[in-house]
Amino acid sequence: MKKILSHAALTIAVLSAMGTVSVGAVDAETTVPEIKNAIVVVKEPAADSRSKSGWLAEQLAVTAFGDSLQYWQAASENDGVMPQDSKNNLSDIGHSYTSNNLPALGVEDDYSLALKSNEDTASIGPVYRVGDVYKPSATTKKTVKGVFTTYHEKDMDITVYTGPDKSRLEGNQLRGQGATYLFPVGTITNLHTTEKGLVTVRDIGVGSSRMEMIFSYGSPNAMWRNQSDESYIFLYEGHAENSWTEKKEFTSLVANTNNNSQSPDSIQNGKSYVAFTVKNNVIEAVDILDGQVWTRFGLPKAPMYHFHAGQLSDDDFVLRGLRLNQHFVNDADAEWRTQGMLFGATFIGYNEYGVSVDDKSLINRVLLNVYTPTRRGIAMGDTKYLLLFVYGMPTRIVESATNTGTATVYEYKNPRSSNSYLQFALDDKNQYIKSVMLSDRPVK
């Protein structure tokens, strides 16, 4: 409990004002120039500045999140003096300060939701945790489905296991043979909320922005798009604390895998999941579930990715499921908005992305529209610092003079291809991402 109370006392600055952004799914060069206009030390503005958007919100987020890393570490040790000042600053992001510094999901509190008693304070109400035994009141409404019962509380739905008790199955070859679930009766298996006020241990909940989520959790392990309402589900995979003999850290390189998240090893490895439903850059729902009940979540199969800042793989160079030099087939389920020529090639623009092809109908560029994220969760409208936080430093930074200032592009080269580049163009003030493009040629 101490861990969740200590960490929940932090408030990560709201970034929702920064941008208005069927299932899709090598180290950077050491000579990259330093980012211009980097702020060496970030000081928190006065209270009347908190309402300002964009740049100040980003500074506050970095400062608060830098503090949170230190608080998290101190809280996990359950003793010692809690640090008061952050030593992180904006110039560190992409170098020593990236998503690689985030703690891996694994402690029990990672799979909990707590009710904030007051939005203006850090006080915490009841805490509900996957794996705990839940005791509902006699008047709580419920829905029974097989060996699971979902209790409908005021702010959330709590699903518990009500089948044969684990103690009756373990050690009994006949009773345990073919058992689907191994839980004590009354164990919470799922938590679901669409209401504001409930937050995870990392202070993320309904109403938080996608940018806050990325700063707190890093890049998702999987992502789905709901074609009917254009929302996205960002999935984070972790392990149950009692099933881990040694805590897994993201500071070491984790190879990308093509293992499916719905495979039987979800049970064997004691996995758990945190899922955020995001629409128009804002979280609309939070789901936390035990790996044993993953298939009941109802999502299609998808590969799981483990991205590492500063280390790119071929999996990074895919946008909206499209790869370069892939033969393009017009999306029959999507209505194209524009059609014409772009950079001398045939271009078709849809609501969420655009594609240009050569005379052989091979893809040579893919562009993303607002709200459409990359596999690491980055989209138009995000600041360059969030980009650097999850991708690390680019292969090169290209600057060119324009009538309104300096055009800057952060370019990441595919380490396994000589003609594959992921390019993020910034606005004239070198602050926000104004375009995301996958291209078969470097920026000139």
TrEMBL record:
Keywords, alphabetical: Signal
Domain of life: Bacteria
Signal peptide: 1-25
Descriptive protein name: Uncharacterized protein
